[in-house]
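ok here's the first one, seq then struct tokens
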Amino acid sequence: MDANVLIFERVREEIKLNKTPRSAVDEGFQHAMPAIIDANVTTVITAAFLYQFGTGPVQGFAVTLIIGIIASLLTAVFVTKTLFLIWLQRPSAAEGLSI
């Protein structure tokens, strides 16, 4: 499950509740975080089992999967939020977000 999809949907829900763009982004990230963490932890646990009980290529896949999940999580949470906040500092952002 892609974290950005969850974040964008939560932000869209907050916008429908007539929140300001900044508060919609903040609350969207806050409400999406439990589902994002749950999905990623579950996948990492599965990859750990693959690594423990697999051999050769399966272990390599498990390591690559864990690295990918961590990179995806960090990118979605920190980079996406930073880009949202930079975008919201623009004068035209006061009009709203088009998500």
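and now the second one, same deal
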Amino acid sequence: MVFTHEAYKNRPTRAEVSISNLLNNYEIVRSLIGKNVKIMPMVKANAYGHGIVRVSKELVAAGAACLGVAYLEEAVFLRQNGIDSPIAALGAINTEQIPEFLLHNIEITSSSLDKSRAISKAAERMGKTARVHLKIDTGMERIGVHWYNAERFIAETAVLPGIAVTGIFSHLAKAESDREFTEEQLRRFDGVVETTAKLGVKAEHLHLANSAGIISFPQSHLTMVRPGIMLYGYDPRGLRPGETYAGQVLKPVMTLKTKVSYFKVVPPGAGVSYGHTYIPKAQTRIVTLPIGYGDGYSRLLSNRGEVVIRGQRCPVAGNICMDQTMVDIGPEGTAYNGDDVLLFGEMEGHVLPLEELCGKIGTITYEVLTNISSRVPRVYL
């Protein structure tokens, strides 16, 4: 279910999205690459949870050459919301969907000769030319033709009617953690690029670099880069205090907030929440927050997470519920209904890094951001 603005405009739980921080991060990407290198911002998964329509419009206005999504449905949604810039769907395709790609002028990924042939047939039937990106597997083992089989794939696709080979691309598997393997992937892709030139196939876009590639491997930039998590303010290598990128600092784009909805004094020995996994030994004060795992605030943060209330860090008390979370503010703690609560990000000079929460539950920033559900309104600042 998608909520209308009227349905949630006064909801105390909200994800505040800083457009200025988004554009700051985009400019960092711009400053790290050559002036002729184009940018394909990744806006899949609802722009990593930040709101695909607004984020896409801002990035197109900032100069993005093409928007990157995973699925046809995401691209069609953008078209339906007035975005007419180039959009490339980089995931594996269902051949039954090919006519929809062509109908909405969406650039399509082919990851095998069979798919190239299916695209060609559909394009001929519809009297259209499909703009196709060929996926080469250089070591991810996800989708795509292995680099050592790429010559036939490229050569035979390039001569199929109704197909314009727009891009040739691959994906870095370990650029944030393994320089040796990443350099091997780069060598493999360089060989594919040489083969492409030998065949006389002129693809407009050669793209390989994700955020980690952009930051750490300038030789991976080629003619286009695909920034993802760094656009939203996070280094794929993890929390790196004081790190600068071309003299600038990545700024997290989302701050997750809610408000205190209930306050009570809990006696010693009284179990809190489902399963009574939190039992205070002394009398304490518990506040309830109107956010839970149904909103994307992970249940794994039960008895592990912290929030900031009135400038103080306070622990999550007991199991996080689907719609509510309890927090122990201590026996002398002060909080009132309506007080703002920081779940991650920055509020009034207080910072609760998302990376810190991820470290507590063994996950990555990508997962937490994309799990913030549709019933949490995005408020653009």
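notes on #2: The chain is about 30% helix and 20% strand. The longest helix spans residues 179-199.
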